[in-house]
Amino acid sequence: MRAGAIRLFIGALAACGGRVGSSPSDAGDARVPLTLRFDPDVACVAQGSRIGVLVTVERDPNAAAKDVEITATRLPGGVSVEPLTIPAGRTSGLLYFDVGASTPGRAKISIDANGRKASFILWVGPQLGTPDVVSLSLSPGARDLIAVQGEETIVGETSEVPPNDNGVAPTTTLVRLRRDWTLDPTFGSSGSVVLGISGGSLATRADGSIVVGTSSLEESTPCSHLTVLSRDGSNPAAIPEPNNISCDRSDAVQTFVAPDQSTYVCGWAWDCCGFLERYTASGEVDTSFGHEGSVGTSDPYINSTYACALHGDRIALAGYHGLFEVDLRGHLAFSAKDDETGMDQFSAVGIGEDRTVYAGALGVLRAFEDDGSVDTAFGESGDLNIAGAPSAVLPRHDGIVLVTSTRITRLASDGTSAVVIGEGGGAAAQDSCGRIVSSGPKEADRYWP
Fold first, then answer.
1. Looking at the domain that runs over 6-126, which CATH code has it been given?
2. Backbone φ and ψ of 353, nearest 5°
């Protein structure tokens, strides 16, 4: 790198949700490389919001340091920028965009740093609280399913959870929504996948494959297992478990995939105890986890698990009569029974960036420290009133917490600044831009951060 050269990196969005940070896109001439890095390739913000993009420069250590002047060109109508100067003694700063007068849509933003060029995509959505909506024609069933697949979203409906020995064959129907929030007709067969099995939960892997936490009756005994589909919805295959280790399981209520691509399924068992199981990337029960692949079915246990969440090296489980957290080996981190939590039935749980555990019950969201004690700094002595029973608690990387129940509530990590941004109900998840996506049999909604 010759004297005076710089390298430019676009980092995490500092406001209003979304993030950028790792996928390289090179610009500039070969003698003076200028590298733009972001993940995903779209920065997202709601119309009427101000967004800050973290810009980091890497200077040639052998050259005399000088200020870096950064601005944006080729701005779409209604978008303005505040030019940024990164002084010689600093390496980063926030480049702010105001999209208050813009029209929803995607636009390429060009960055100029001391004459060197780079670009990224800015996607402006509707005003906060105004959702993208798509109509669905799924048959109402026992449970709504949802999972994010890159910039696309998989939604579904299952007819019967858990499966019952009543002679009725359960089905699970899945469809895919594209990033423009329209149905994808190329998914599965003519736009949908129908599984002849009871699906209780849904997740996707890094390669785009879809894993469904499913359950079936084997000689009148409920058993849980994974059903795996390719990215396009083809080749559904139920993966058997060695030695029927996952029988006596009634309902797989939640499925999630860890960074190492192992899959976790939680739910409640035939004997009324909550469980958490880990499957390897190849789909077999991982017997090195917990007790022969499972935790929660012996003391300490939760009498029925209704929700679980993964963050970093911790997994939280919440349900009837308690809340507990384990590490990725299945070893107990903390256990809080109902006499300790003051709550007798949790319906949703999430883990924040600071390892705060947020657990929702009817009418309330409660925060816990990472040792299981109530975080009295949250809300009012640890509690925040919420309408209805939360179905999902989704902490974002920027400290915002999204809670869905009969309504969708957006709040700060300490329980302040709570505001209702939409109507709730059904399943909910969070996409890579920090938007909340929710579904039911009649429609799917996407709310911008």
1. 2.60.40.10
2. -60, -30
